[in-house]
Amino acid sequence: MSASAARRAAQQVLLRVFEEGAYADRALTGAAAALDRRDRALAQQLAYGTVQRVRALDHGIEALGGRSVTRLDPPVRAALRLAGYQLAYMDGIPARAAVHESVELVREAHLERAVGFANAVLRRLAGGLRALLEGLPEGTPAEAGLRHSYPDWVAETWWRDWGGAEALGLMRAQNEPPETVVRWNRRRPGRPGGTPDPDLPDALRVDRVEPAELESGLVWPQSRGSQLAGLAVASRPGERVLDLCAAPGGKATQLAGEVTAVEIHEGRARELEANVAVLGATNVRVVRADALQLPAELRGFDRALVDAPCSGLGVLAARPDLRWRARPLPELQLALVRAAAERLRPGGTLVYSVCTLNSDENEAVVSAAGLEVDDLGAEWPRFRHPRRPEFLLTLPHRHGTSGFFVARLRAP
Predict the structure, then answer these.
(1) DSSP-assigned letter for residue 178
(2) What is the pLDDT of residues 14-50, one digit of tens each?
(3) Is-catalytic flag, 355?
(4) Which of the residues 355, 393, 407, 409 is marked catalytic?
């Protein structure tokens, strides 16, 4: 019996991510292209979950298998990790099926010499992996990082900023599948289905994104945290608005007024233009430029949005491989805020948003900018920052959405 198509695709994703440095979502697109919806969903669950939990899984494989995972052939390593995820973290899949299909993945890789070894290790994993991982301590950042499969620096950052209990809540929440939310694009006719959010007028929770609604531009996949950042700009018709890091366009196409959407990378700029067209955002003009070296004529804006590149610690649930490649970018973020502020008219406002939960990239950047701060917490008390109520902060374990920090600053 050969391995199932879903498990074969999941193994391909693991090989691409860990052996070639590919992004998980792009690897899945290629590996699952020929699968039906059900198999694709299973392949995604298996691949994304294994990528997220790989640190803990490798610990269990080495403890029970008696060999370092770095010494294994890549297809064997991927097959053991894939089976380990099913055995330790998924209910409803018989252990026998997880073991057998992973053995078949090794066989299909033409590694007959490794089949016996893989079979023996997998049987040990079936007998003890879940109990081993559930029994790991979590009382320190290092312990919690291993048990919940995060880099030590992420665990240490959250422990420092939030304390142990909140840090553990963040870790657990971002190992679960994210909510599925779309933004209703009122530029297009029709009314999509879904459950509305009481504070975000166009946010709809849905079971799945309907392809027809997406292709017609009626909806745009966008978390509630991300939509909050766009709403905080509060632009109005007749105003000139600068979006300094605009691709792929979710927030740019939320904005009212005459929007200049800046993107430095050619491919992303083309993607941005295509998304603007699909969503019918005729008020948005795409400019390909370096945000830190804007053309001289781009100045005198009423409002600006700096949705800056960041470590992404608020979106780890949706981007499973990001935790293993993320890094803080406070110097770049501060430079972008200053660049945008220089292009505002006197008294104009600037929204700084980042999808991370790291005070070095959040509050510290705003403090370094030295600009007057608007009280956004008074406008959206539900999302008020716990320590700094003038800012907004969506927290995955409290609000059930991606983590976004949002501040609105005012130019002198």
Answers:
(1) P
(2) 999 999 999 999 999 999 999 999 999 999 999 999 9
(3) yes
(4) 355
